[in-house]
Design brief:
Strand order of the largest sheet: 1-2-3-4-5-6-7-8
Number of domains: 1
Radius of gyration: 22 Å
Shape: elongated
CATH architecture: Beta Barrel
Strand content: over 45%
CATH topology: Porin
Distance between the termini: 33 Å
Largest sheet: 8 strands, antiparallel, barrel
Structural class: mainly beta
Amino acid sequence: MRRVLGLLLLLPVLAPAARAAAPDWTGSFGGTFAINARPDGGGFSGSLAALWPIEERFSLGAMLVADDLGMETGPLVDAHTGEPLGRTARFHRAIYGGTWRLDGRLDTRRGWEPFASATWGFYSINDELHGAFLGRVSAAGFSLGGGLRRPLGSRGALGASLRYHRMFDNRIGRYVSAGLDWAWRTGR
């Protein structure tokens, strides 16, 4: 009982510290393109990051990434006659990863908040066909990006971002993602 009472008495002291330790959240939802590998058709791109301020203009944290690079197609041929029947899927490639992310905010201009971002992390490059797993390769990589956000109220922001990705492997190489970017500032 004394412990519970002691924690209740400390709550007014601990609550501001917990609020200050809460991360800012940011994410991006869009697509991939300019892929330097096969398949190169592009697809969905999404990321979610939790960032903690380390200085007035800089934040550091972790980011999860899911990028679809597209599907490779090939000819479908009748096994008995050899007659072409059209095209069919050969495999689909997607990237999933976890990275460290550093963001820098620039001066607000005309209500827009420009930002620059760099990541470094590890990725899983997955190949599948109609849900059947074909193979996986792990790779280190980085990305450099930037964008503009427009504040929405005192905590939110919405805008656009563009990000260059570089994978250190023989399957992907590099690609670009663009998306609708959002941010939510907690407690400060």
